[in-house]
Specification:
- The structure holds two protein chains of two kinds.
- Chain A is of the alpha/beta class.
- Chain A is built from ten helices and 13 strands.
- Chain B has a four-stranded mixed beta sheet with strand order 2-1-3-4, with helices on both faces.
- Classes of the chains: A alpha/beta, B alpha/beta.
């Protein structure tokens, strides 16, 4: 799973400080062509700065970047048509409709008008084509913003927190759009502070905190390596705490007003024993998530 | 670009019909639509200055033709001559005492009393210009009467006539002045606000990541400002020429167009400078106002510049609007030719180059 020869993006030990604040302190990673790569971390972790350096918007204090085989800094006009960028704020021309935004951005790349229609279809904004940007909802703006990043059919797309601040439904809609883009063979580098999202979408995830990458792997491997307990949750009246503790392979039992949670690293015998006792009412099994990985890596609870 | 890249680009273009607009055309169109659809911008560029034209135009409507009133006591050849001169309107007053009261009260600027060969003129000292006019006028009439009384033909004759077809009626100086102000507002505010907004909402950053030259972006926005200035000029002159206002253009009025465009360029440069420093739209608006309003007052946008003290007139030479205003009134209403715009045009180009250079030095793609 390491970097390969045909990397779309190679980031090598980059550093960046703003005054006394070290935003990025030695970050290295490599993204393969066609890969969906997530950079995950809380606000202020250095995700956006890392992305900006990769895009060629900033020059790192130290370290180097190879983007599609060339250096993106200083402004490299040869590579610009091959990259698509969605910025954290929605960068739109004021008072223009969704279609006009796409046409204007498209024209900058020599792309004509029917490509705008195609993009509107891709992000599900066909019926909003003539709506002005300021009358679109947050989710619609994000989708339009992604469409603008894709209008010239780039090889690699950078998305900075595309799902930030969206309601769950819009977030899910956007996941479909992102999956569709990946299906078209694009390389996607994106930042998020939603753990569940990174888990659902990314081929590989880099977990960042305080300007450094703490872990980098597939979501599944990150969780597997964690060696964390599986949590079995039961309705409380079904079972006594003492009885639960006596079951084979149980590490811990926690009780609250509504439920009883059994932590175990060997869920199979525990579940069998519970079934034997007919105590499976309201059963839920929760395995470790990236949230647990984050907790494990940083020693603190994850707050988006 | 490698051959592969070029092929990909070609394919992208191939797939896309209709053919894409040139980035310059596309950006100009975007900026122009943004302007036309912004009701506040439309108001402040077109209607707001027009309101000033209407108000000031009606207020000063017959400014030059109001006659001086003069109290007249008694009768005699001097009073008759004054009456015939048409320069003053005589108001008959019964007695000298009464007339004196009226002058003291400020109801009359002066009165003339004739008793036999004795002419008496009393005037209020408060308005020295008016007092001077009255004294000069009455003295002239008295001298004429004296010469006539000798029965000799006068040795010197005076032939006085106006050079301009009309004295500059208010609308004649208001139109070029207010137009210069209107154009400066839209160009300074337009440039400054676009720059600040595009930096804030990251359009600038997005453009930087597109394969488009900065000069193309700048050129497109400048073109829109020039178009707006021409539109303002057409609306302004059109309204001022309505019979109510009665603007009369002189023969070479079209020479004002290149001047208007050069003025717009220099104001645009000022706006770029403001936009480079301002962090928010509010700051940009404040700073632009702080520059445009004093500049307009000192450059004679609202009243003729020769009414202000000399040192202020000298100071006003530091503003591009002063030169635009002067050049435009020369060709729009003072019936002067191309010679009159050469110096103002050169000065405006100078302003544009110098301010534009400074603005390009302090330009920032993003807030640091």
């Amino acid at each position: 799973m390491g970097p390969t020869g045909d990397a779309a993006l190679d980031v090598d030990d980059i550093h960046m400080s703003y005054g006394d604040v070290k935003a990025v302190a030695g970050v290295s990673f490599s993204v393969r062509q066609g890969e969906f790569f997530g950079i995950l971390g809380p606000n202020g972790a250095g995700k956006t700065t890392t992305l900006e350096i990769a895009e060629g918007l900033r020059e790192p204090d130290a370290g180097s970047v190879r983007l599609l085989g060339t250096s993106p800094w200083p402004r490299n006009v040869a590579v610009l048509p091959r990259i698509g960028v969605q910025l954290q704020a929605s960068a739109f021309f004021e008072k223009l409709s969704a279609r006009e935004q796409l046409e204007t951005f498209g024209a900058l790349y020599g792309v004509g008008g029917d490509r705008a229609t195609e993009m509107l279809d891709l992000v599900g904004l066909r019926d909003k084509a003539d709506t002005r940007e300021n009358q679109l909802s947050g989710g619609q703006r994000q989708r339009l913003s992604i469409a603008c990043a894709l209008v010239h059919d780039p090889d690699i797309v950078f998305l900075d927190e595309p799902t930030a601040g969206l309601d769950p439904q819009s977030r899910r809609n956007l996941w479909d759009v992102l999956a569709e883009i990946k299906g078209r063979g694009k390389t996607i580098v994106y930042t998020t502070h939603y753990l569940d999202e990174a888990e659902a979408l990314c081929d590989r995830v880099a977990i960042m905190d305080h300007g450094q990458i703490l872990a980098l792997d597939t979501p599944a491997a990150l969780v597997r390596d964690l060696d964390s307990a599986t949590h079995v949750v039961l309705e409380r009246d079904g079972f006594a705490v003492a009885e639960a503790r006596a079951l084979p392979g149980v590490d811990d039992v926690v009780e609250d007003e509504a439920s009883l949670t059994i932590a175990t690293r060997t869920p199979a015998p525990v579940l069998a024993a519970l079934a034997e006792r007919g105590a499976l009412s309201g059963l839920q099994v929760r395995t470790a998530t990236l949230e647990d990985v984050f907790l494990e890596l940083t020693g603190r609870e994850y707050r988006a | 670009m490698t051959a592969v890249d070029e092929r990909q680009r070609d394919e992208a273009t191939e797939r896309s019909r209709p053919v894409a607009a040139h980035p310059f055309v596309s950006l100009s169109r975007a900026a122009f639509k943004g302007f036309v659809r912004d009701k506040a911008a439309m108001f402040f560029t077109i209607l707001f200055p027009l309101m000033f034209l209407v108000i000031l135009g009606l207020l000063f409507g017959d400014g030059g033709s109001s006659q001086l009133k003069l109290g007249a006591v008694g009768q005699g050849p001097v009073l008759t001559a004054l009456e015939r001169s048409d320069a003053v309107e005589l108001v008959d007053v019964a007695s000298a005492d009464e007339a004196e009261q009226q002058v003291k009260a400020g109801d009359l600027p002066a009165y003339v009393a004739q008793r036999g060969d004795d002419i008496r003129l009393r005037f209020a000292a408060s308005d020295r210009t008016q007092a001077g006019t009255v004294v000069g006028l009455v003295r002239g009439v008295v001298s004429d009467a004296n010469v006539r009384a000798t029965g000799q033909p006068p040795q010197f004759s005076l032939d006085a006539a106006r050079v301009e077809d009309e004295s500059l009626r208010p609308i004649q100086f208001l139109t070029p002045g207010l137009l210069a102000w209107a154009v400066s507002m839209s160009a300074v505010f337009g440039a400054a606000l676009t720059l600040v907004m595009w930096r804030k909402n990251q359009v600038l950053r997005r453009l930087r990541l597109a394969p488009v030259r900065p000069m193309t972006i700048l050129g497109a926005r400048v073109t829109v400002s020039l178009g707006i200035a021409v539109l303002q000029g057409a609306v302004f002159v059109g309204v001022a020429m309505l019979p109510v206002f009665g603007l009369r253009l002189s023969g070479s009025w079209w020479l004002a167009i290149p001047l208007l465009l050069l003025g717009t360029l220099s104001f645009f440069a000022v706006g770029m400078l403001v936009g480079a420093f301002a962090k928010s739209e509010e700051a940009a608006t404040g700073a632009a106002n702080l520059i445009v309003l004093p500049m307009a007052f000192l450059s004679g946008a609202f009243f003729p510049i020769d009414q202000v003290p000399q040192w202020l007139q000298t100071l006003s030479l530091a503003f591009p609007m002063r030169h635009l205003n002067e050049g435009m009134s020369a060709v729009l209403v003072r019936d002067q030719g191309i010679d009159a715009i050469l110096l103002p045009a050169a000065i405006l180009i100078g302003f544009t180059v110098v301010i534009g250079f400074v603005a390009s030095r302090v330009f920032r793609w993003e807030d640091s």
